[in-house]
Amino acid sequence: MKKEIVRFENVTRQEDGATYLDNFSFYICEGEILGLVSVNDREKSELLKLLARNLPIDFGRIYFEGRLVNSYLNSDYTVNKVYTIDEKSSLIQDLSIADNIFVMRPGFRKYVINETVLMEQALRVFQELSFDINLNQRVSRLSTMERIIVEAAKAYLMGCRLLIFLSPEKIISQADYEKFHQFLLKLKKLNVASLYICYHHWIMFEICDRIALFSSGRIKRIFEKKDFHQTAFAPYVLSFEGYKAYRCQAAGDPIIQLDNLSSIAIQHLNLSAGPGECITLLDSDNQVTDELLDILTGLETDYEGSILCQGRDIRKQKGDCLDRSMIILDDNPTETFLFQEMSYLENLSFLLDRKLRKSILKPAFLHSVRNEYYREAGELVDERHIGGLTLREKYGLIYNKISLFHPKILIIKKPFAYGDMRCRNYILERLKALKESGISILLLTNYITDCLYLSDRIEVIKNGQNIVSLHPEEYGIISRIF
Amino acid sequence: MSNASEKNLSPVKRFLSQRGMGQVITVTIGLAVLCMLFGFINPNFFTYRNIANLLRQIAPTLLTGVGQSFVLFTGNIDLSIGSVVGMSCMISATLMCHGVNPWVAVLITLICCLVVGYINGILVSKCQLPPFIATLGTMTIARGIAQIVNGNYNTDSIGEAAKGFRTFFYSGKIAGIFSAFWIAIIVWAFFNYIMGRTRTGRHIYATGSNIDAARLSGVNVSRTIIYVYVVSAFCACITGLITCASTGTGTMDAGTSYEMYAVAASVIGGVSTLGGSGILLGTVIGAAIWGVLQNGLQFAGAPVAIRNIVIGIIVVVAVLLDVIVRTGKGKAKKHKAA
What we know:
The structure holds two protein chains of two kinds.
Chain A: E1 4-15, E2 18-29, E3 33-38, H1 41-52, E4 59-64, E5 67-71, E6 82-85, H2 97-103, H3 115-128, H4 144-157, E7 162-166, H5 177-189, E8 193-197, H6 201-204, E9 210-215, E10 218-224, H7 230-233, E11 256-262, E12 269-273, E13 278-283, H8 289-297, E14 304-309, E15 312-313, E16 326-329, H9 333-336, H10 344-349, H11 352-355, H12 363-377, H13 391-405, E17 409-413, H14 421-436, E18 440-445, E19 457-462, E20 465-470, H15 478-481
Parallel strand pairs in A: 3-8, 3-9, 6-7, 7-8, 13-18, 13-19, 16-17, 17-18
Antiparallel strand pairs in A: 1-2, 1-4, 4-5, 9-10, 11-12, 11-14, 14-15, 19-20
Helix pairs in contact in A: 2-3, 2-4, 13-14
Chain B: H1 3-7, H2 11-16, H3 21-41, H4 48-73, H5 81-97, H6 102-126, H7 131-148, H8 163-171, E1 173-174, E2 177-178, H9 179-197, H10 199-209, H11 211-216, H12 221-247, H13 258-268, H14 280-299, H15 304-337
Antiparallel strand pairs in B: 1-2
Helix pairs in contact in B: 3-14, 4-9, 4-12, 4-13, 4-14, 5-6, 5-7, 5-12, 5-13, 6-7, 6-12, 8-9, 8-12, 9-10, 10-12, 13-14, 14-15
């Protein structure tokens, strides 16, 4: 029988009057790959905090490698040997791999560093993980996949027997997924347990041993391998299948058109989207998204080919995105699109004066905006600081702002990257409404998830160029492309 | 490159593949070009006498540059360096004028200066004050101490009793080169070893590169920041002692603007003001460029104002290049990461 790494027994955790874990029980064994689908983002964050550190709990017990480390009677704030790998690197960019995995860890005692010895030891670790890499190179030069493996190696060396992979689909390109799964299997052989947290259960089907559905503070159900199919999950998760029904029927001149666009990573990229059309750019090897956004926002001007916005070349146009009636959202718009210290209404109407080409917006006009969005946002519209809003409410503000500005083109990088299941549902609804109102939507993603339900066409990009263009009836073949 | 081929790198290739070496090579070429240019303008530039003086001139910039580089590696800045130089100069000179044994005076001065460095470190790391504000405050305080220590007067000559002190810190020669330069080189070599070969060095780079990741990796970030400020104060103290030995008196305005010279030497040498990158070898070259420019422009008969303008432009261009190179690398990295 396999040894248990972590066991939560009837754990309840409350904070500020809200219950985040409610009689929560689960366990992970060594060498197991456990998937976790969380319906609520905040509950997931609390679980991660409790896994990493023995914070006070209101009820229950937590065991780590068979030892009681936390209970409602005694929580000593100690740190557990758990390592979380997520979007943000925990490595030191300007140091070498060997330095990062040996010197940059608690317990490294030697003062003078012998690089030869360090290199030999690092070599052994990577041989154990069957991974060949130049150990002397700086971490800043690693690809995302390599960075994940180096972090896992560091965790392994630190004695962590539980690795948490937090939404890997956000950072790993579709083309690298196979390699990532192979690596998880290698860790499994070394008896390292993995907790694979992802909002898309079907991504976990091919790699996880079990999948736990986490909702309302407890594990609703554990799915065994035999239950790994959509019908088993359907009663528990929000279904977006209905969205497939809406497809753009409108025809007309393209609102945005990329003609033979080439830059550093982009090679002869062609794309066009008409009014009300939603195109997904599947950047399968994660090469072009950032560069394309830099070009569209005007940060990068060194490119060949042309980008036409409503028939006009953006290179020849003065002004910025707003002047081109274009809104660009980053993957985490709650951080990059909103101003936390401003009020809801200030955020909503920020730059509206420029959009309307007026130097000052009259209070009466702002009042009418407030009244219009009161119907959508309720009392929130009078909120003085948006810092305290929930994720869903912040997304609400973002999409209200977009609807108020009503751009011709909306470009979104990984639209569902930061939303929990409920948020994703909400984002889909709002995007659908924007699409129906005639806005051209361009979604840039490295992994096809919920974009499927919205897209009229998927342009698959590899090595910087279009390799295939898929229409809805062909979406089933995406996985076979890689 | 595979692991095996990595292990077989020759020592020269290994040396050249060090982090920040590219920038050092670039500025070294720049230094060579400057030397040739000034040698061409005035052949006396290459005389033994001028070179010995030039090296002695470089010593204070190199020393303060090493201290400032340490602080810059962590992504902070130390504006109090110049005032600590003045404080060191005044405290040591005052003590010697009052008949204290020069070596005891050196020890007392060192302790006073290290306390200033420690306070800087505490203010920045524990009290979380912005380094610019914290060291601006201690800059004023240290200059005040320099003024108050001898009742708001410069000191008299430190006298014959301190001859050994002056020889040790300034006028003595080893292998035909003044001791001030040797002291600077020894201090540089010691701290270069700390940066390149020890755990502390890695912790300093880590703190400047990504403070959160460093903290999560078990680095005692507060201790590291205090350490760099103490090193900076130590270097400023030695510079103050050299200044005292060179003039033979304590002057209250000694070290004025040295913090800026130190930033210039570091930045020209490729140390990033954003922290986490650069090497101390670059600071040597940066200090040398600074010294050569001062010396060469003087030889060329350029007025002080022109010298300042030229050097200011070079500092701005160096920082601009750093930003351009970083941005370019960022793009290349993104491409590679994909």
